[in-house]
Amino acid sequence: MFRIFVLLLVIALPASAQSVSGFADVTDGDTLQVGGVKVRLAGIDAPERHQLCGTSTCGIAATQTLVALIGNDTITCVLNGGRTYDRIAGTCSTPRVADLGRAMVMSGYAMDEPRYPPDYTFETQQAARSGHGMWVDPAQPAWVWRAAQTSSTTTPRDSDCAIRGNISANGRIYHVPGSQYYDRTSINASERWFCSVAEAEAAGWRAPR
Q1: Sign of the dihedral defined by the CA atoms of residues 24, 26, 27, 28, in that order
Q2: Domain with CATH 2.40.50.90 in the chain
């Protein structure tokens, strides 16, 4: 999790509207915590942290983009009452950015989520045409990527290919059997197994530091 600050104020508004304000912790490109409330930016879907777009780590880049958009500013999220898992949907702003969801789409690191408002279809089309962010490489909607994932597995493709290639905020790192983080490392569909250190390094992975 990328920490910005953790001093928050919850503001209760009448009727159906509620908002939370304060400093935020960014979880990924469309999720943050404000005032102890986990908020999903309404109307968008950003790449998952481990998602690749072509060869680029667009999920990590999306997270870093949201962190940069917020900076050290306070944030206000007007909650719409919708829920996705343990998150409440909301439209969020800072003194410098009127709509963080829209800004994420325009940056090229999020798409319109067609099932939920607001509608950012036009902004998504603009970003795609300009080739910003994840649109530099073939961009797969995050909901399609999630649907394609299987549960994390600890079984390599064959018994001689047991080196785990993991993607994290620190980059592409390989873990050999018996190393410090090997047993903690799981592999999803964007990551891979290697049969040798040479193979891993040739593919762009590195040893942990």
Answers
A1: positive
A2: 19-140
Tokens representing 126?
């603009």
Enumerate residue ranges in the chain where pLDDT < 50. 1-16, 150-153
Q: Which residues contact 184 (CB under 8 A, 6 or more apart)?
A: none
Q: Are 108 and 127 in contact (CB under 8 A)?
A: yes
Instruction: Give bridge partners of residue 24 from the DSSP assignment.
Output: 34
Q: Which fold has domain 19-140?
A: OB fold (Dihydrolipoamide Acetyltransferase, E2P) (2.40.50)
Sheet holding 163-168: strands in order across?
171-175, 163-168, 192-194
Distance CA(141)–CA(110), nearest Å, equals: 9
Q: What is the phi-psi region of residue 15: left when phi exceeds 0, alpha when psi lies from -120 to 50, beta otherwise?
A: left
The pLDDT, as a whole number, for residue 157 is: 52
Nearest to 163 by CA among 191, 129, 130: 191
pLDDT digits (tens, 9 = 90+) for 23-39: 999 999 999 999 889 99
What pTM does this model have? 0.66
